[in-house]
Write a structure and sequence with these properties.
- By secondary structure, this protein is an alpha+beta fold.
- It contains 31 helices and 14 strands.
- The strands form 3 sheets. Strands 9, 10, 11, 12, 13 and 14 form a 6-stranded mixed β-sheet that branches. Strands 4-3-2-1-8 form a 5-stranded antiparallel β-sheet, with no helix packed on it.
- A hairpin with a 3-residue loop joins strand 6 and strand 7.
- The longest helix has 33 residues.
- It starts with 8 loop residues before the first strand and ends in a 28-residue tail after the last helix.
């Protein structure tokens, strides 16, 4: 009970000063009305007792005001205390009787209910933290850190400092921030406890901030150094997305030709610039012992890319960059040969000629480049004269380059027709332009993979014949002819054509890859693998060469080795959808489902493709998620409606659901598409294996066995021909004949693979677009 109601007192967490009518607590400070203040004092004097309405009105000397005024005063007190009427902690209402103060008031000078001195003075260190310089030090550190990062970003690259040094500085600045705040607080606490009063912003600001920042940098530097040695900073390790293998080391006798910069910005100059770069690339590829990066890989970098980016992406020692500018008939070309190791220029030259002199400029650039590389290339290195082919009409050449640019895009029926249109317009100006005829041949041969239209093969044959007739000395002509023969199952002719292309240009990776395919189809497996690996050695930055070797290893049941090659693709192109799709395919058949699913989903996220959806459907089948498997195969069939394998995969998935009629319809369509494809190439072993399974699922056992017999004759060592043979036998009830094969192939998938890796990559169109 209060002895002197005029002195301040406490109610729990609240403190009330009667003279000022001020009630302070966790909810803030409230100034009560005179009547409410008097009611609170009256209740405090009789805490714990019931005080009637009349007694309270007498205390406040407001009898005439009535009970309504009293209720308003009580409500005001409750609001200030944060005390609800239905769950009172301080003030209780007793209907018909009055009010009672539940909390015991304590003089403000005595300890409160929690034992905390009610009027204790703030401790010096708390006051130091509240009024000290932590905020100022934090702001100063952020400003200084931002300036340091900006200076490093602007100066490190021109000074040729290692890129990881910039990463080191950024991590150091970030890691030092909490250290700066902690040190600033500790300095203020130390000063406050030492002097008995907190230090403010005054004259202590500079030394406190300087000490804090310097100490933070020192401590953060030690921590970052320890982390870097133990774990490694970002960018020092291998890409984490797919646990990638270490990239191929830089080849000493290697070069790339970057896309030339289009100075005037016109579309025609862009075609000129790309054509000039690609033709110089072809000329350099004919130089013995000189390894030249593929067009698709070199053109994945922007014009005037940094030497570090070139070295990391293409793994080449040297590279050519330049610019092209056209003005009426005048053509101005500037080139620079640069050492990727240090970024220094080995050669710089400017050409200003009539536009008709383009081919002379190409020859001179090649000669100058080889001459300047002579000190690092083997002594017998020289460009072979007379192998570059033709100097067509310049306008015909520009149209031809338009067609080649279209042909380098992802293949579709529309893009093939567009490319052929450009080639035909080129031939209208120069009917004897053999490269344009070869372009038509290559376009229709590649288009057959997409459309499976037999008449496209006929058109390709006619165009290749015209190209050979015009100029039988071009390597691109023989390479196109070799792929045409390969598409039609004429492996002997294909091998001869690829050998002719390589006789003209031993470094033609397109022809070398085609020859490796022929070796594989004719069961010369050691020679095939050696050719695939030689292609990688020629162009270590070409993702297509790793894709081709990975496909070969996959086909021979070497799934782990195949996955390694697909990871190398990702080390060169971390966002290559084909690499993710093929990696997922290899991981599925390795039984590593947990790793396969994110790889396949990433491939679909980057670019929805048939092979990625097909292999995702296979994965879901293995996991027993049949509805998801059906949905994935439906998407694959929608993307490639002319692909027999997509429909066969869909039929497989549907056959494990209640949708049996839809499954049979899918198999019927798959059979029609497979037979249509075999009419063009009866020796396509992969399609024969697929057809065997399709016939078995349609309960046509005799036809299935005939297809298998033809496939075994063509490719007796292919594991799939034996595996599918076992599955066909099991479906026909011949468990005894199927068991030996099943035992031998126990490391394979438990059922036919829905899809194998695609041979084409987003950067390399030199190999058949087939699951085989």
């Amino acid at each position: 009970m209060l002895e002197d109601p005029s002195l301040p007192f406490r109610l729990g967490e609240h403190r009330f000063v009667p003279g000022e009518r001020r009630l302070a607590g966790p909810r803030g400070t409230h100034r009560l009305s005179p009547r409410a203040a008097a009611v609170l004092v009256c209740l405090a004097q009789r805490a714990g007792d019931v005080v009637s309405h009349e007694e309270l009105l007498a205390c406040v000397r407001a009898a005439r005001a009535g009970e309504a005024a009293l209720r308003r005063s009580v409500a005001e007190i409750r609001k200030a205390l944060g005390d609800p009427a239905h769950r009172p902690r301080y003030l209780e209402t007793l209907p018909g009787r009055g009010y009672r103060l539940l909390a015991e008031p304590v003089p403000a000078s005595e300890p409160g209910p929690a034992g905390t001195p009610a009027a204790a003075k703030p401790r010096p260190w708390l006051e130091a933290l509240r009024k000290g310089g932590i905020a100022e030090t934090g702001l100063a550190y952020l400003v200084v850190g931002w300036l340091v990062i900006q200076i490093a970003d602007a100066t490190f690259e021109p000074l040729r400092l290692p890129s990881r040094l910039g990463t080191w500085v950024t991590v150091l600045v970030i890691a030092g921030f909490p250290f700066a705040l902690i040190l600033a607080g500790l300095i203020d606490v130390w000063r406050a406890t030492r002097t008995g009063r907190p230090q403010g912003r005054g004259r202590r600001f500079l030394d406190r901030t300087a000490i804090s920042i310097a100490g933070a940098v020192l401590l953060a530097g030690i921590g970052v150094w320890v982390y870097d040695r133990a774990i490694g900073l970002p960018g020092d390790g291998e890409p984490a997305a797919a646990s990638l293998a270490r990239p191929t080391p830089v080849e000493p006798n290697s070069i790339a030709v970057l896309p030339f910069l289009n100075i005037d910005g016109s579309p025609e100059t862009a075609v000129f610039a790309n054509g000039l770069a690609e033709d110089v690339m072809s000329r350099l590829a004919a130089v013995p012992s000189l390894r030249v990066a593929a067009r698709g890989d070199a053109f994945s970098l922007p014009a005037n890319a940094s030497s570090e980016a070139v070295r990391a992406r293409l793994r080449v020692r040297y590279y050519l960059e330049g610019s092209v500018q056209r003005s009426d008939r005048l053509l101005r070309v500037v080139i620079h040969l640069i050492d990727s190791e240090n970024g220094f220029r080995v050669l710089s030259r400017t050409f200003s000629r009539d536009r008709s002199a383009l081919f002379a400029i190409q020859d001179e650039i090649t000669r100058l480049t080889v001459a300047n590389l002579r000190v690092v290339l083997p002594p017998d290195t020289q460009a072979r004269p007379g192998i570059y082919g033709e100097h067509p009409d310049i306008d015909a050449y520009v149209l031809y380059r338009h067609g080649m640019d279209v042909l380098h895009r992802p293949l579709s029926a529309a893009s093939i027709e567009e490319a052929v249109g450009w080639f035909r317009r080129s031939l209208e100006l120069d009917p004897g332009f053999a490269a344009a005829h070869a372009g038509i041949c290559a376009a229709y041969a590649q288009g057959f993979r997409v459309t499976a239209e037999p008449e496209w093969i006929e058109r390709a044959e006619h165009a290749c014949a015209a190209a050979i007739d015009r100029n039988p000395h071009l390597d691109v002509v023989h390479a196109a002819l070799g792929h045409l023969y390969a598409e039609t199952g004429r492996d002997g002719d294909a091998e001869a054509a690829f050998r002719k292309a390589l006789a003209v240009n031993a470094n033609n990776v397109q022809a070398l890859g085609g020859l490796a395919d022929v070796y594989y189809r004719t069961q010369r497996l050691d020679r095939a693998e050696a050719a695939y690996r030689r292609a990688i050695a020629l162009q270590p930055g070409n993702t297509g060469t790793y894709n081709a070797l990975g496909w070969f290893l996959y086909q021979n049941g070497r799934y782990e080795e195949a996955a390694t090659e697909f990871r190398k693709m990702l080390s060169l192109e971390p966002r290559n959808p084909q690499a993710y799709a093929n990696l997922g395919s290899a991981l599925v058949l390795s039984g590593r489902f947990a790793e396969a699913e994110p790889a396949l989903l990433e491939a679909i996220e980057l670019e929805p493709r048939r092979d990625a959806f097909s292999n995702l459907g296979l994965l879901y089948y293995y996991l027993g998620r049949m509805e998801e498997a059906v949905a994935a195969h439906e998407k694959a069939a929608a993307l490639t409606p002319h692909d027999h394998l997509a429909w066969a995969n869909l039929g497989d998935a549907l056959s494990f659901t209640t949708r049996q009629e839809e499954a049979r319809a899918a198999f019927e369509r798959a059979r029609a598409l497979a037979e249509r494809k075999l009419r063009v190439n009866p020796r396509d072993a992969g399609t024969l294996i697929d057809l065997a399974w399709i016939e078995a699922m349609l309960d046509r056992r005799q036809e299935a066995q005939e297809a298998l017999a033809k496939a075994r004759e063509l490719t007796p060592s292919d594991p799939y021909v034996h595996f599918v043979g076992a599955l066909v036998a099991l479906r026909g009830g011949e468990r005894r004949s199927a068991m030996p094969v099943s035992r031998r192939r126990s490391t394979w998938a438990t059922r036919r693979s829905c899809s194998r890796p695609s041979r084409t990559s987003s950067r390399c169109g030199t190999t058949p677009n087939s699951r085989r």
